[in-house]
Design goal:
Number of helices: 10
Structural class: mainly alpha
Number of strands: 0
CATH superfamily of the largest domain: Cytochrome c-like domain
Low-confidence stretches: 1-33
Strand content: under 5%
CATH architecture of the largest domain: Orthogonal Bundle
Largest sheet: none
Mean pLDDT: 87
């Protein structure tokens, strides 16, 4: 049933892409033939409104729920990289990041489309989140700020910043991200079902389930 549902979702979203983007993607600059031009936030907003909002919620990409990530305020460079990772690149046998729904969406976007929609989400104001479990905050805070030295787990803050703002190009913004989504991604990194970051695979493998949930919940309240 889940497989059938995913298949139907891919077909529906692919159809939506064809209908929603035909008016402007076809006339976009030939981004795939070279370096994308300067981001067009207006066109990016059109993609976000017509396509992304169906899963990520309101046009700013901050749906109320952890099944899909918050996108508002995320670094544009990171969004572009993730969109490209959903596509099978030349010379590769499969995409670096597997998701049947996102593969269909990313496959319909050219490089310029990706730059445009990423720039739009970056300009949106991120909505703050909060930790739900006071009992695990100390554990989550310890891991985020100091890591776990005896297991070779570095502090999350070393890459993502003290308040989870990340570093453009290199590391994503985590501040306020849904705890359920962060938990799912850390689990996917550990299991190898998400394999587009070897460092995160290594780190996630060294955390147990309780630690993953604790640090994910702590991240949700970062601001």
């Amino acid at each position: 049933m889940n497989r059938l549902y995913k298949t139907l979702m891919v077909l529906e979203l692919t159809a939506a892409l064809g209908a929603g983007l035909v008016g402007w993607t076809v006339t976009a600059q030939a981004a795939d033939a070279g370096t994308p031009a300067k981001p067009d936030v207006t066109k990016g907003q059109a993609i976000a409104t017509q396509i992304c909002a169906s899963c990520h919620g309101a046009a700013d990409g901050s749906k109320a729920g952890g099944a899909f990530p918050k996108l508002a305020g995320q670094h544009a460079e990171y969004i572009v990289k993730q969109l490209k990772d959903y596509k099978t690149q030349p010379g590769a046998k499969e995409p670096a990041r597997k998701n049947p729904i996102m593969a269909g969406i990313a496959g319909a976007l050219n490089d310029q489309d990706m730059v445009n929609v990423a720039a739009y989400f970056e300009t949106q104001k991120a909505k703050p989140g909060y930790a739900r479990d006071k009992a695990t905050v100390p554990v989550g805070q310890k891991i985020y700020r100091g890591g776990i030295a005896d297991r070779g787990v570095p502090a999350c803050a070393a890459c993502h910043g003290a308040t989870g703002m990340g570093v453009p190009v290199q590391y994503p913004r985590l501040s306020g991200q849904w705890a359920d989504y962060t938990t799912a991604q850390l689990t996917a990194f550990a299991q190898g079902t998400r394999n587009n970051s070897e460092p995160m695979h290594t780190i996630a493998l060294r955390l147990n389930e309780a630690e993953v949930k604790a640090v994910a919940d702590y991240i949700a309240g970062l601001h």
